[in-house]
Amino acid sequence: MTTTTEMVLIIIGCAIVTWLPRVIPFIFVRAIKLPDIVLRWLHYIPVCILSALVIESLLDTSGTIVSIKWPIFFTFVPTLFIALWTKSLSITVLAGIVIMALVRYFF
C-alpha cells in the first residue's frame, strides 16, 4: 500500500510526463520561422484530430459490421449546426452536453 505522499509524487510525475511532450515542441518552434507551407499544413491538424475523434465515436466497430451509434449521431448533428452557427467552442460544448443528456434521458 502506498502512502499519500507517494501518490502525490506519482500524480505530479505523471503530470510532468504528460505536459513536457506538449510544451517542448512549442519552445523549439518559437525561435524558428516556419515556412508558409508548413504553417498552412499545421492549420489542418486540429480539424484532422477532431474528425478522427468524432468518426471514431460515431461508428460502432465491435461487431462484424460497422454501424452507426444512433444516440451519438442524434447528438452530433445538432451540435455540429450549433458549432457552425455560433463558432464558439464553449457554447458548442455546453450544447453538446445538454443535447446528449436529453438524448440519453428520452432514448
Question: What can you see in these coordinates?
Answer:
Pfam families: AzlD. Keywords: Membrane, Transmembrane, Transmembrane helix. This is Branched-chain amino acid ABC transporter. The chain crosses the membrane at residues 6-29, 41-59, 79-103. InterPro entries: Brnchd-chn_aa_trnsp_AzlD (IPR008407). This protein is mainly alpha-helical and 107 residues long. It has two domains: 1-32; 35-106, no CATH class. The chain is 79% helix and 4% strand. It has five helices and two strands; from the N terminus they run H-H-H-E-E-H-H. A two-stranded antiparallel sheet has the order 1-2. Strand 1 and strand 2 (67-68) form a beta hairpin. Helix 4 (70-86) runs antiparallel to helix 5. The radius of gyration is 20 Å and the shape is extended. The termini are far apart.
SSE diagram, text form:
Layout: H1 4-30, H2 36-43, H3 45-58, E1 59-60, E2 67-68, H4 70-86, H5 89-106
Antiparallel strand pairs: 1-2
Helix pairs in contact: 4-5
